[in-house]
Amino acid sequence: MGTQAETEKRNEPMKRILRCHDFVKNDIIRAENCYLYDKNNKRYVDFESGIWCAVVGHVNPRINKRIIEQINNVVHLGYRFTNYLAEEAAVNLLDTISEKGGKCVFLSSGSEAVEFSINIAKLITGKNLMLTLSESYLGAYGSAGMKTDKWAKIDLRDCLNCKEIECFKDCTNLKNISWDNIGAFVFEPGSSSGKVKFPPKKLIQLIFKEIENSGGLVIVDEVTTGFGRTGKWYGFNHYKIRPDIIAFGKGLGNGYPVSAVAMKNEIATELENNKFRYVQSHQNDPLGCVIADEVIRIIKEEGLVNRSFALGSKLIGYLNELMKRFPFVKEVRGRGLMVGMEFSKSNHNLDVELLSNEMLKRGFIVGVNANANVIRFLPPLTIEEHEIEALIENLGLVLERMN
Predict the structure, then answer these.
(1) What is the mean pLDDT of residues 77-102?
(2) Does the domain made of 62-301 have the CATH classification 3.40.228.10?
(3) pLDDT digits 0-9 by tens, 362-384
(4) Using CA atoms, how far apart are residues 321 and 274, in angstroms rounded to an integer?
(5) Kind of pairing, strands 43-46 and 338-343?
């Protein structure tokens, strides 16, 4: 028999954890690829990749091998000391964005990477006004998290509903923007706070041209859309633009907290010439850099970007078949393995949170945005097709009950 403390720990495993959100009390104790297992050994297929992080699968053996090797050497260094591992990771990362002459810094979270990007854009341009799309998430804190003062926003909903074939500068959604005052356009090329919405290509190309002509910069937030998630290496690849600064997170560490910012060489040169200074405790840490480097190598060597495109196309096709069966399905939208299904408000029997819970009972973890009436699917890029087929079969049965 265990002690009272051990009994309490088993019965209330999050008792001493601050409750900032709801918990699902299934006590996950181990994971493998796209699977999670609870304390009763029930298996769940993770169609959320944790929080969209485990792009190469949970407990990836190649990453674990590199971690074990590295923790037996050095995990953390003071920021003043050089290490070749950071350089290797930077070279590999810059290669994925075709910016071999650029420079990187490795940080700890996607929110930090976005905030860092915004701050250097302000320094480079001397302009404090940032522009973004109305439904962008961008970050959990700071200027990007608040998006109140010193931010201009374009209403993405108006643009998605627009019937015009072309976007024009005098469009009602764009005409009041003071382009000359904008330091940077901070572009999130998908997700839209978990609603899985993708901005129109013509709109983004127009904004890019206007920002470029007015001396501003383009920052792309690839925290959720990077590393093959959308069927291309990065979300911005769907728009044929070349960003000045890119923020990375989530998939870069496959669940380990490492992020990065990459920038063109001319931006890095200007920062360094002006003796720009930024220091934090885990900047360019060897362990984080090793993990980031291995994630990129796995994606390249195992062809996971193309795999994401192929499997995503099949998943979207299966979901479209369900939409034909159930008229309360309003829309299916996706790129690669970032896919959402939105429901109309007309079916009062359908509750997306209840739907998510029913799928969980059946062993499938799917994302949900209750306010938008959306469920979403962002599995590891290593998921097998038969698990996608099983998801569709079970989702169809649940929707039938709610019809």
Answers:
(1) 94
(2) no
(3) 999 999 999 999 999 999 999 99
(4) 57
(5) unpaired
